[in-house]
Amino acid sequence: MLVQTRFFYTSRLPAAQRIGPHNQDVVSTLVGNLLGDSWGEKPYQSSRFHFHMASRNVDYLHWLHQFYTKRGYCSPEKPKPTKQIGKGGKIYFSYKWRTWSFSSLNWLYDSFYTICPKTGKTRKRIPLLIEELLTPRALAVWIMDDGSAANAGVLISTEGFEIQDLEILQRALKNKFFLTTTLQRRAKTKWGLYFPKSECFELVRLVKPFMVASMMYKLHNTKFG
Fold it and tell me: Do residues 97 and 147 both lie within one domain?
């Protein structure tokens, strides 16, 4: 399918004039990223989305950057590796970039973020309309962001969400895709979302068309389908 770049999505255009429409493939990919490690911010009443990924998945991060670039959502300048120092002084490299700001994507930011009444700070949440937003593409991007093969199933790191959010997400996966998941405790109040082996054949069937080839290892190298 030919994808047309919207040339008016440039850094020089005011965010209020970036009004879409936004195709489903873009919205689905943003949803998958926001379920994963990406984050949003809303300065000056317009929303933009940030990406920060380690170099070990360089094929995926370049694919993702090109996806947004070709559709006119971010700068075409390739992100450059930045040296990071991790635990124990271990050195690794990561890449950062972000989309342009869009006033027409405020609804997506507002769906994923709320103010915590206890702290007064902004926190990420699972949107109440997540069932409507979930697509096979969104699931694939989410797995590429935060998934891993675990035992006989697939585990997604969801420690950034509260358990009430994950219960909303579980119901959405069950209602829309008939996928049953469990929650695995990762810390005292942190949980991972787990697709057991019995669900993986259907999970792979849904997401495989949208997976980057080098990321298939997160699905046990497609042994399910």
Answer: no
Element (H, E) at 185: strand 182-187
pTM of the model: 0.88
For residue 2, being part of any structural domain is answered with: no
- Tell me the C-alpha distance between 198 and 46, whole Å: 42
Range of the domain at 145: 130-222
One-character DSSP codes across 9-28? -STTS-GGG------HHHHH
In a domain, 5, yes or no: no
Per-residue pLDDT of the chain (225 residues; tens, 9 = 90+): 344 445 445 566 665 566 566 889 999 999 999 999 999 999 888 999 999 887 778 889 999 999 999 998 999 998 887 877 767 777 777 889 999 999 899 999 999 999 887 788 899 999 999 999 999 999 999 999 999 999 889 999 999 999 999 999 999 999 999 999 999 988 777 899 999 999 999 999 999 999 999 999 999 765 655
Does 71 fall in a domain?
Answer: yes
Distance CA 169, CA 4 (A): 33
10 lies in some domain: no
- Hey, what are 121's tokens? 């700070």
My answer on whether 109 and 159 are in the same domain is no
**97, 74 contact by CB (below 8 A):** yes
Task: Find the CATH number of the domain harbouring 68.
Answer: 3.10.28.10
Query: What's the 3-state SS for 110-137?
Result: HHHEEECCCCCCEEECCCCCHHHHCCHH
